[in-house]
């Protein structure tokens, strides 16, 4: 009852805002070109890291590769290029949200995103937002969220870009990008195709990764058009088509094969009236997979989901306050070999507030309530604040309640040996975080400590009849420390950049007091890049500490250090045609490593890239 | 699930051992490090990793885990389903690796491996100088299930016998091999009888749904525990305990449970039948005319169970992702004698 009341209050505030709407006529530029303003305005006291174009290009082929070497997230890959799931701040795979242009795109079926099915190459930047964000970004934003954002450019421009890549294990990729714009139009189109035999050696054995071949196609497009001076229509689209054999393990060969398609479309109508901005969004998300237990046979099992989203977003700026009310309606359906006609209607109301109390001090208060037909959803809230103590030193603080909703698999799975449970409720977590940043001309130093309590974690375990079934059984707590140090140095035409991250994660099962599986205590990344005229030389280093592979911590995988090195040179053929050529060596020291037990990762390998812009 | 030979062997060895324990242990020559004890097969982590074998001495004082790896410095493979015995050899069935690893049952030194001709192998038994191994084939294909015939000299698959779908445990008695068709990921309700002289299925005996375990009593009757179909199947059926006369290969008696009762883990010892139902262990004599009403032990959750020499051995797989336990009960006093940590998902108990 109390929750319902709060929900009504949210709605009322939202209506009052709408009534008070007044007209203005200046266009807030960043609002127009960005797709996800919640990330911009309502993340005051949150640690947000932006991975720029240049960084993406060095690790461009999969989101796993990119974040592995440039964030504190630990990845569990079932062999290179196979299913990849994150552990962010010691949380599990469904506790990291992937957000595409402001929309949570974690699978409705599994609750997770396979980070090897996202091609980061065609995004201008990838943003890692650490910590809870369920109020803004929905289910799963517990450890943090990863944001893929398209931007629009409303000015005269036109270019084409072609990228060719060739590497070890017969890995080939080709990317085509084009963009065109005027002061009224912004158009972009990108396509990326990658194919690999992926038959790397299992170091220390005479065997290879026999069943690991993959190929995938990623297509994306954006269209932006000014209907009038203050009204913009934007269309976003992305389709990913993956086709993979699934690698076996050291102890068991595999013949599995997997095909998946994910497609996202978003139509957005924005009305920018100075301090009043309203947006109407209509989105459609589709996912489908086919799993072939034996690729030599035609038998497969499948699953698919459709998600239709209607979203109304009204933002009002008055004085130093920004208010934002969001009403969101989702109609989701899923079906498959193991799921029959499952439906979900979800309505959520969100209220966000940011107040710039002074130049130095700002804070935000945010709440969200959902009404869903198939489970009870808790009231979510968050508070965050940032205080600039001096020009160089700032402190941020945030606390939030977040959740992970039961997936369609959790609720509706029907199959031999496993069965869904309609009684499961959302996992909930409460967390707090304190961060400090020191900024100088040539350095940035960050230090963040966090604490997360998670309750009612959903776990599949055999019931009395021996069938696997999900239950809200586990409580856990995580705490940790994250440190970052960026150094920049420039002498004439020499440029040096050195970015370092360190994360300590303690993630404990409350019942057993044991560290959760596949959470490393320590992770370090260190990337150094040197530029001289058209030349660039870089080195990437990753240290993943020891992880336990059994819940009683009786077995573990050793920690390892990985090293990649690359060199590149950009060139200009004439005023219009320019390009870049690069060579990269991955796993320079031929380290035998695994991030999931019994699933070896690649030996030393090479990659050549040529990009031409015209 | 369990091999008749192992029961016989265990009886013999168990008695021998008890007697020589009273004398001087050193006088009796050991056949290897893992003689005179219990072998536990541990399936290992579900998706990736290797199963293991644990050894516990009969006096429960000596415990050694991962004995195969220790002796041979290699992994057994993914999902160690069961162990069958013939002669002095242990046939370790590795389900997901589609292999059988053959080792000396007392020293655990590797003697060979069968890696061709098996497809989702489940259980092994020997008869007429040959090995017989149930195979699911492709679990999604109900028409490719078979029993592989193993050459016990050169460790190869020398033939296959197509059978009804979902063959699981199999036992040899009176020169016949009895195969229970539990139904793989689905449900079946048959016992096939294979004649090892011709390697043909000579009879199919219909029983209750989901026959999951079986054993012979002193009069050579075959007792088959049928769980019945679970509620999630949409057509729940009652559990049944079926007694088969192995002279005529016909059903002699059927004991019915209630529709929501799904018994499992039947074993036989000293002409008594033991089984588990709803977290309890029940026992009855092989001559009983009705099912027992009060349990022998309450509040247990066994992944597998065996009874030997007045002791009941049960394993706990815990959360299926950590080391399990073997707990030994004194059947008379119903007290726990000892709980011993073993490997991940301990699925088989064998008396060596």
Automatic annotation (TrEMBL), chain A:
TonB-dependent receptor-like beta-barrel domain ranges (all copies): 166-588
Gene Ontology cellular-component terms listed: cell outer membrane
Topology in membrane: Multi-pass membrane protein
Name of protein: Iron complex outermembrane recepter protein
UniProt GO molecular function: siderophore uptake transmembrane transporter activity
Localization terms from the record: Cell outer membrane
N-terminal signal peptide: 1-23
GO biological process: siderophore transmembrane transport
From TrEMBL, chain B:
Name of this protein: 40-residue YVTN family beta-propeller repeat-containing protein
SUPFAM superfamilies named among the record's database cross-references: C-terminal (heme d1) domain of cytochrome cd1-nitrite reductase
InterPro entries the UniProt entry points to: DUF5074 (IPR031815), Haem_d1_sf (IPR011048), Host-pathogen_enzymatic-act (IPR051200), WD40/YVTN_repeat-like_dom_sf (IPR015943), YVTN_b-propeller_repeat (IPR011964)
Domain of life: Bacteria
Species the sequence originates in: Arenibacter nanhaiticus
Coiled-coil positions: none
Signal peptide range: none
């Amino acid at each position: 009852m109390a929750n319902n009341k709060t929900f009504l209050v949210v709605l009322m505030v939202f209506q009052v805002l709408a009534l008070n709407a007044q007209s203005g006529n200046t266009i807030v530029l960043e609002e127009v070109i960005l797709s996800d303003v919640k990330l911009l305005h309502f993340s005051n006291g949150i640690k947000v890291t932006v991975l720029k174009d240049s960084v993406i290009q060095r690790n461009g082929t999969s989101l796993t590769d990119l974040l592995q070497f440039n964030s504190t997230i630990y990845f569990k890959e079932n062999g290179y290029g196979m299913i990849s799931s994150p552990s962010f701040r010691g949380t599990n795979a469904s506790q990291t949200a992937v957000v595409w242009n402001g929309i949570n795109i974690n699978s409705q079926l599994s609750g997770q995103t396979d980070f090897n099915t996202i091609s980061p190459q065609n995004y201008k930047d990838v943003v890692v937002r650490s910590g809870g964000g369920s109020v803004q970004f929905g289910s799963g934003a517990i450890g943090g969220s990863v944001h893929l954002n398209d931007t629009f450019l409303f000015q005269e421009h036109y270019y084409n870009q072609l990228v060719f890549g060739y590497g070890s294990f017969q890995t080939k990729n080709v990317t085509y990008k084009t963009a065109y714009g005027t002061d009224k139009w912004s158009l972009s189109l990108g396509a990326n195709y990658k194919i690999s035999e992926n038959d790397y050696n299992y170091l220390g054995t005479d065997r290879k990764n026999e069943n690991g071949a993959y190929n995938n196609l990623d297509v994306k497009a954006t269209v932006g058009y000014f209907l009038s001076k203050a009204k913009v229509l934007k269309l976003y689209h992305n389709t990913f088509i993956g086709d993979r054999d699934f690698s076996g393990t050291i102890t068991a060969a595999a013949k599995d094969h997997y095909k998946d398609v994910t497609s996202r479309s978003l139509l957005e109508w924005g009305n920018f009236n100075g301090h009043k901005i309203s947006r109407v969004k209509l989105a459609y998300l589709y996912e489908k997979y086919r799993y072939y237990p034996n690729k030599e046979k035609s038998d497969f099992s499948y699953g698919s989901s459709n998600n239709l989203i209607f979203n109304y977003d009204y933002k009002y700026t008055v004085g130093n306050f920004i208010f934002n009310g969001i009403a969101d309606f989702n109609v989701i359906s899923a079906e498959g070999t193991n799921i029959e006609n499952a439906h979900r209607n979800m309505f959520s109301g969100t209220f966000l507030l940011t107040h710039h109390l002074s130049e130095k001090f700002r804070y935000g208060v945010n709440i969200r309530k959902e009404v869903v037909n198939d489970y009870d959803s808790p009231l979510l809230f968050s508070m965050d604040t940032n205080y600039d103590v001096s020009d160089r030193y700032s402190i941020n603080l945030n606390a939030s309640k977040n959740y992970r909703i039961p997936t369609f698999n959790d609720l509706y799975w029907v199959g031999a040996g496993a069965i869904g449970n309609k009684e499961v409720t959302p996992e909930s977590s409460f967390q707090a975080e304190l961060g400090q940043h020191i900024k100088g001309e040539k350095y940035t130093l960050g230090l963040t400590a966090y604490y997360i309590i998670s309750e009612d974690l959903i776990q599949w375990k055999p019931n009395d009849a021996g069938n696997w079934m999900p239950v809200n059984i586990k409580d856990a707590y995580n705490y940790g420390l994250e440190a970052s140090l960026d150094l920049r140095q420039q002498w004439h035409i020499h440029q040096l950049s050195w970015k370092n991250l360190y994360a300590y994660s303690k993630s404990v099962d409350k019942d057993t007091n044991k560290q959760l599986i596949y959470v490393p205590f320590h992770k370090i990344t260190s990337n150094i890049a040197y530029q001289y005229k058209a030349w660039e030389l870089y080195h990437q280093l990753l240290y993943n500490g020891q992880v336990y592979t059994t819940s009683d911590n009786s077995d573990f995988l050793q920690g390892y250090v990985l090293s990649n090195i690359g060199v590149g040179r950009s060139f200009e053929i004439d005023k219009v045609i320019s390009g870049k050529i690069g060579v990269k060596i991955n796993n320079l020291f031929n380290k035998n490593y695994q991030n999931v037990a019994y699933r070896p990762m690649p030996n030393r390998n090479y990659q050549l890239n040529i990009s031409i812009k015209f | 699930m369990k091999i008749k030979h192992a029961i016989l062997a265990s009886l013999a060895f168990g008695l021998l051992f008890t007697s020589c324990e009273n004398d001087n242990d050193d006088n009796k020559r050991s056949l290897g490090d893992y003689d005179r004890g219990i072998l536990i097969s541990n399936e290992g982590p579900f998706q990736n990793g290797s199963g293991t074998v644990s050894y516990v001495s009969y006096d429960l004082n000596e415990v050694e885990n991962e004995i195969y790896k220790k002796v041979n410095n290699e992994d057994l493979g993914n999902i160690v389903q069961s162990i069958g015995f013939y002669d002095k050899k242990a046939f370790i069935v590795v389900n997901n690796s589609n292999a059988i690893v053959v080792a000396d049952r007392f020293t655990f030194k590797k003697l060979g491996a069968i890696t061709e001709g098996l497809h989702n192998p489940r259980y092994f038994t020997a008869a007429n100088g040959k090995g017989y191994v149930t195979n699911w084939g492709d679990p999604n294909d109900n028409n490719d299930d078979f029993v592989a015939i193993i050459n016990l000299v050169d460790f190869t698959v020398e033939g296959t016998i197509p059978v009804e779908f979902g063959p699981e445990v199999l036992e040899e008695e009176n020169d016949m091999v009895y195969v229970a068709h539990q139904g793989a990921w689905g449900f079946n309700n048959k016992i096939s009888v294979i004649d090892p002289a011709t390697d043909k299925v000579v009879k199919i005996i219909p029983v209750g749904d989901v026959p999951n375990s079986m054993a012979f009593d002193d009069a050579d009757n075959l007792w088959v525990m049928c769980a019945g179909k679970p509620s999630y199947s949409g057509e729940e059926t009652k559990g049944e305990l079926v007694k088969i006369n192995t002279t005529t290969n016909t059903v002699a008696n059927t004991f019915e449970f209630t529709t929501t009762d799904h018994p499992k883990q039947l074993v036989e010892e000293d002409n008594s039948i033991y089984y588990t139902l709803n977290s309890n262990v029940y026992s009855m004599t092989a001559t009983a005319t009705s099912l027992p009403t009060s349990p022998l032990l309450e509040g247990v959750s066994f992944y597998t169970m065996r009874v030997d020499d007045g002791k009941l051995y049960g394993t706990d797989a815990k959360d299926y992702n950590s080391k399990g336990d073997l707990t030994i009960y004194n059947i008379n006093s119903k007290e726990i004698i000892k709980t011993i940590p073993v490997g991940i998902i301990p699925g088989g108990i064998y008396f060596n």
